Known about the structure:
This protein is an alpha+beta fold. The chain contains one helix and seven strands; from the N terminus they run αβββββββ. It has one helix at residues 4-19; strands spanning 25-29, 39-43, 52-53, 59-60, 71-75, 84-86, 93-97. The strands form two sheets. It has a four-stranded antiparallel β-sheet, with no helix packed on it. A three-stranded mixed β-sheet has the order 4-1-7, with no helix packed on it. Strand 5 and strand 6 form a beta hairpin. The radius of gyration is 17 Å and the shape is globular.
Amino acid sequence: MKKLIPRIIFIGLGLLLLGGCQPDVIVKDEKGKPISGASVAPISLSINYKKVITDKKGHASIDFKVQEVKWVTVSKEGYISSGNVLYERKKPIVIVLKKK
């Protein structure tokens, strides 16, 4: 019984953390369909960070950065780039790309 309680707590915390995960950015087209393979570029005041690619649901998560991310720019072949979108707001940020 003594070994069971720590395991239950550990598993419970793990499930809580996984259940609370949500993307930082969701990219969709004009019809509301997710866009997979879009490049999400995090930008701070003086650093352009490595781009993150959206998954099949159009989701992208941006890891911790040394300098705070201020904007993101989203682009994909065949779509008009989003330009700089303010990152400092409630997550997830939904960005809609228009076809060229």
